């Protein structure tokens, strides 16, 4: 569902078009900079543009691979679930035992991979900084703060020098009115004395400013990102790593025990052996795809930071060009607007995702026959949805039933409609086939309360009797689909009315 959630929220916000606009603006900026006369600075910008373009292409390739992985995971998990259900036809004892073992193994594999992915993330992102020690991190943070103060002081001094020149110009304009007039040497001495006196307004530098720039690569927003990373590394402790390793060890031990039990299970039906073999292959495929998905997501996360840093560096280089040249000014403005659009996307996504998660929580509670097993819904930056129980466990780590998955989908539709504030029709085919009695009534009542037209395509055993009575006050029209076969051709057509004995 992560791909559907991500696409739904992005299209709801129009982020797809905003992202395309930002990309087009950067292409436009590159074209405009190409019109600037060649020079040392221009060559540096072009070289940096090549690096940015290469990073963007690589990230796009990885994101396309992530979409393909998501599709492959859906297919593999669906086939695995289907084969697991088919095992029911091979004997009660064998089927129940094997299903339980397979589900337990899937749960343990998910727990192992979750701990492993978190351990890899910490090892790649936070652990090196955590191992450097608090004293060193505090010294680096203090040094960055002092360099920021020096940067502010230099900026103020540079601005002050421009003001000094304006004061000298005013004095120079009034020196000519002196009687008797000053000698040329006296005139120069007066201006020099004024400059020296005014320069003392910004000297000496503040005591809390650094004597120089030791971290010249960390300026402006990049410096604040470095300080944030140092603070984040402080939260990683020996207990954090030990807990993850302990969780992996427990899951690995449980997996060995479960695999031994599965191998020891007597299977008499040849077809069951084939299905077991296929389920094993699918489990390996799911595990491989999940690992690759985690690696690719980590790659995108790290390379996006590099890309943003290079884009900012490109913006700084662009600002150094001759601002009197129209192509340079247009390129700089396009880069600034593109950067603003990227910031807008980064700020808009979490707010909208939080709103959709809240609406999904309300919808699931309204449709589920139990409202105490779900605490809240969370949506991550990559569209991953977590259904959190009151004890903090993610219910999606377990195999959801077909009915629970259907309620999840209905809740997503309802949340998108509620947050968007738009009214649109909804067509649902056999809406109750996988639901128990209480779920059926809750889902029907939920559908009857939504704004907009709802078309239910039902069999003669679904929306009938008490289920039909629950929504009868909202039913505007009923049709029955008739069909006949003429040779190899099947023909279907609607007839007004409903199933016999249902009051239509």
Walk me through the topology.
Layout: H1 2-13, H2 15-33, H3 40-86, H4 92-125, H5 127-131, H6 134-175, H7 184-199, H8 221-233, H9 238-264, H10 270-319, H11 326-367, E1 376-379, E2 385-388, H12 402-420, E3 426-429, H13 437-449, E4 454-457, H14 466-471, E5 479-486, E6 489-496
Parallel strand pairs: 3-4
Antiparallel strand pairs: 1-2, 5-6
Helix pairs in contact: 2-11, 3-10, 4-9, 4-10, 6-7, 6-8, 10-11, 11-12
User: How confident is the prediction overall: mean pLDDT?
Assistant: 80
Tell me the radius of gyration.
33 Å
Main sheet summary: 2 strands, antiparallel
Estimate the strand proportion.
5-15%
Give me the count of strands.
Answer: 6
Helix-strand makeup class: mainly alpha
Strand order of the largest sheet: 1-2
Q: Any overview of this molecule?
A:
The chain is elongated and about 120 Å long. The chain folds into four domains: 105 residues, no CATH class; 145 residues; 100 residues; 82 residues, no CATH class. By secondary structure, it is mainly alpha-helical. The strands form three sheets. The chain has a two-stranded antiparallel sheet. It has a two-stranded parallel sheet with strand order 3-4. Helix 2 runs antiparallel to helix 11. The two termini are 38 Å apart. The protein is built from 14 helices and six strands. The longest helix has 50 residues.
Name some characteristics of this structure:
mainly alpha, 6 strands, elongated, two-stranded antiparallel ribbon, 504 residues
Gist of the model:
This protein is mainly alpha-helical. It has helices at 2-13, 15-33, 40-86, 92-125, 127-131, 134-175, 184-199, 221-233, 238-264, 270-319, 326-367, 402-420, 437-449, 466-471, and strands spanning 376-379, 385-388, 426-429, 454-457, 479-486, 489-496.
């Amino acid at each position: 569902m992560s791909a559907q959630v991500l696409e739904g929220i992005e299209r709801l916000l129009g982020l797809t078009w905003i992202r395309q606009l930002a990309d087009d603006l950067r292409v436009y900026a590159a074209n405009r900079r190409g019109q600037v006369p060649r020079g040392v600075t221009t060559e540096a910008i072009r070289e940096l543009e090549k690096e940015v373009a290469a990073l963007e292409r690589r990230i796009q390739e990885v994101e396309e691979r992530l979409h393909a992985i998501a599709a492959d995971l859906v297919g593999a998990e669906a086939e695995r679930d289907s084969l697991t259900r088919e095992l029911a036809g091979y004997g009660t004892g064998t089927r129940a035992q094997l299903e339980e073992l397979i589900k337990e193994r899937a749960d343990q594999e998910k727990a192992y991979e979750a701990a492993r992915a978190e351990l890899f993330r910490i090892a790649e992102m936070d652990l090196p900084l955590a191992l450097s020690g608090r004293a060193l991190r505090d010294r680096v943070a203090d040094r960055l703060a002092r360099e920021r103060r020096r940067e502010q002081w230099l900026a103020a001094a540079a601005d002050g020098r421009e003001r000094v020149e304006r004061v000298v110009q005013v004095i120079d304009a009034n020196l000519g009115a002196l009687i008797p007039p000053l000698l040329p040497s006296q005139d120069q001495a007066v201006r020099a004395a004024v400059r020296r006196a005014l320069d003392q307004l910004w000297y000496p530098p503040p005591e809390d400013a650094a004597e120089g720039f030791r971290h010249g690569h960390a300026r402006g927003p990049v410096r604040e990102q470095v300080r944030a990373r140092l603070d984040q590394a402080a939260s990683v402790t020996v207990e954090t790593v030990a807990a993850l390793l302990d969780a992996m060890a427990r899951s690995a031990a449980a997996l060995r025990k479960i695999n031994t039990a599965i191998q020891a299970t007597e299977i008499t039906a040849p077809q069951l052996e084939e299905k077991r073999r296929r389920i094993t292959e699918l489990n390996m495929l799911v595990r491989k795809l999940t690992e690759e998905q985690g690696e690719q997501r980590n790659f995108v996360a790290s390379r996006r930071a590099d890309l943003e840093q290079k884009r900012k560096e490109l913006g700084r280089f662009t600002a150094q060009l001759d601002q009197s040249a129209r192509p340079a000014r247009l390129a700089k403005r396009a880069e600034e607007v593109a950067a603003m659009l990227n910031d807008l996307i980064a700020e808009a996504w979490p707010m909208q995702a939080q709103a959709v998660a809240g609406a999904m929580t309300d919808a699931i509670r309204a449709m589920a026959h139990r409202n105490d097993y779900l605490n809240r819904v969370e949506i991550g930056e990559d569209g991953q949805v977590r259904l959190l129980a009151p004890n903090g466990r993610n219910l999606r780590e377990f195999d959801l039933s077909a009915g629970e998955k259907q309620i999840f989908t209905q809740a997503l539709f309802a949340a998108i409609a509620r947050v968007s504030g738009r009214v649109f029709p909804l067509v649902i085919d056999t809406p109750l086939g996988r639901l128990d009695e209480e779920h059926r009534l809750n889902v029907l009542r939920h559908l009857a309360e939504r704004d907009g037209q709802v078309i239910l395509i039902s069999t003669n055993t679904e929306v009938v009797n008490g289920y039909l009575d629950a929504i009868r006050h909202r039913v505007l029209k009923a049709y029955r689909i008739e069909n006949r076969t003429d040779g190899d051709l099947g023909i279907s057509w609607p007839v007004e009315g409903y199933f016999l004995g249902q009051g239509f």
